């Protein structure tokens, strides 16, 4: 629901089967910035850096500002509120010693996308600077929001499309949506393997902060990495791996056993695994983990004496897989009801 929550016009609806866009889209791009898997995209909302003409700090401007009012090296985006933390860190790295400035023209409070009491880029900027501060980057070197007001009568009401792009239609806006697949039984994925992919936003953040850490010979803070814990009730249903959109949870063979492994680098802390587990075995903490992969659960593998399929046996005397045990229990219950009816 991150995209729907970020939409200032309230025209996005998310259901288990689809993402729908009603009339009234402002083309601000905040929904795309909020989506960690980039299922949504906005045409023209590119981040290509302009030639460093004019020198000075690298500035970021919104599309409403006329090009004649911007610096020669400005990066133009649909809305400053459409910048993600990873994008800000990426731009900060590209700016180098010159520094990064997000330019506030004083129009946000009256903008059709709505600015509210807080500038739409402020929370993202604060998050990026907190990570930089954790790596020892001083305040004067951090990314800044600078006020350079323009007359209110210069502000267009609607966010214009960039000159090089066609007007954006609803069909173009929703051209690459991923359609969720309902969770099935044990081992049946909510996201088929072909649909799972690493979050580009997560990778941008790690790459930018990793480069800063390497320059300063520092370690990335543990708070940057999520943690998944198993309370011992894991029954190897593997619904959690199917529900994970980034593949951070996977099952691999380790010494003849099935190992549930967790990769903190690719986890986006969405909580899908925790919600999907039928045994309530997993708990997710968005911060305080460790970088890299680790084993969350190990299960002994054996063949079912009835169907012959491989399964994880929790007890030494479990000769049948979970499905066959349930089937036999159901048949016994049915036989008992039939006998009682005969009597």
Task: Give an account of the 3D structure.
The radius of gyration is 25 Å and the shape is elongated. With 343 residues, it is α/β, with parallel strands linked by helices. Helix content is 25%, strand content 17%. The protein has two domains: 2-173, no CATH class; 193-303, Alpha-Beta Plaits (2-Layer Sandwich), CATH 3.30.70.20. α3 (85-95) packs across α4 (122-134) and α3 (85-95) packs parallel to α6 (200-215). The termini are far apart. The strands form four sheets. The chain has a four-stranded parallel β-sheet. The chain has nine helices and twelve strands. β1 (12-14) and β2 (19-21) form a beta hairpin.
Briefly characterize the structure:
By secondary structure, the chain is α/β, with parallel strands linked by helices.
Radius of gyration: 25 Å
Structural class: alpha/beta
Shape: elongated
* Uncertain segments: 50-54, 164-189
* Average residue pLDDT: 83
Percent of residues in β-strands: 15-25%
- Relative helix content: 10-25%
- The first-to-last residue Cα distance is 55 Å
Main beta sheet: 4 strands, parallel
Order of helices and strands: HEEHEEHEHEHHEHEEHEEEH
Task: Draw up the topology in text.
Blueprint: H1 2-6, E1 12-14, E2 19-21, H2 30-34, E3 58-62, E4 75-77, H3 85-95, E5 100-104, H4 122-134, E6 144-147, H5 170-173, H6 200-215, E7 227-230, H7 239-243, E8 249-254, E9 257-263, H8 272-276, E10 282-285, E11 293-303, E12 310-312, H9 322-342
Parallel strand pairs: 3-4, 3-5, 5-6
Antiparallel strand pairs: 1-2, 7-10, 8-9, 9-11, 11-12
Helix pairs in contact: 3-4, 3-6
């Amino acid at each position: 629901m991150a995209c729907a929550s970020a939409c200032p016009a309230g025209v996005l609806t998310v259901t288990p089967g689809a993402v729908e866009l009603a009339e009234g889209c402002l083309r601000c791009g905040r929904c795309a910035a909020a989506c960690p898997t980039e299922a949504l995209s906005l045409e023209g909302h590119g981040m290509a850096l302009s030639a460093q003409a004019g020198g000075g700090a690298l500035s970021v401007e919104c599309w409403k500002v006329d090009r004649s009012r911007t610096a020669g090296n400005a990066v133009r985006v649909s809305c400053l509120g459409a910048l993600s933390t990873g994008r800000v860190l990426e731009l900060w790295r590209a700016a180098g010693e010159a520094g990064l400035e997000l330019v506030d023209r004083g129009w946000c409070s009256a903008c059709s996308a709505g600015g509210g009491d807080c500038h739409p880029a402020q929370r993202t900027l604060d998050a990026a600077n907190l990570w930089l501060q954790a790596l020892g980057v001083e305040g004067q070197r951090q990314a800044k929001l600078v006020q350079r007001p323009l007359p209110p009568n210069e502000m267009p009401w609607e966010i214009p499309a960039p000159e090089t792009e066609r007007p954006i239609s609803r069909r173009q806006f929703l051209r690459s949506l991923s359609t969720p697949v309902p969770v099935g039984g044990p081992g049946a994925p909510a996201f088929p393997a072909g649909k799972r992919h690493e979050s580009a936003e997560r990778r941008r953040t790690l790459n930018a902060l990793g480069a800063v850490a390497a320059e300063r010979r520092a370690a990335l803070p543990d708070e940057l990495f999520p943690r998944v814990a198993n309370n011992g009730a894991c029954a190897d249903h593997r619904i959690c791996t199917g529900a994970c959109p980034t593949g951070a949870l996977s099952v691999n063979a380790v010494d003849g056993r099935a190992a549930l492994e967790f990769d903190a680098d690719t986890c986006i802390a969405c909580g899908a695994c925790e919600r999907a587990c039928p045994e309530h075995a997993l708990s997710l903490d968005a911060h305080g983990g460790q970088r890299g992969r680790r084993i969350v659960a190990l299960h002994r593998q054996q063949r079912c004496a009835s169907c012959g399929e491989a399964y994880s046996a929790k007890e030494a005397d479990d000769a049948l897989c979970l499905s066959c045990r349930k089937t036999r229990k159901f048949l016994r219950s049915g036989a008992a009801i039939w006998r009682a009816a005969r009597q």
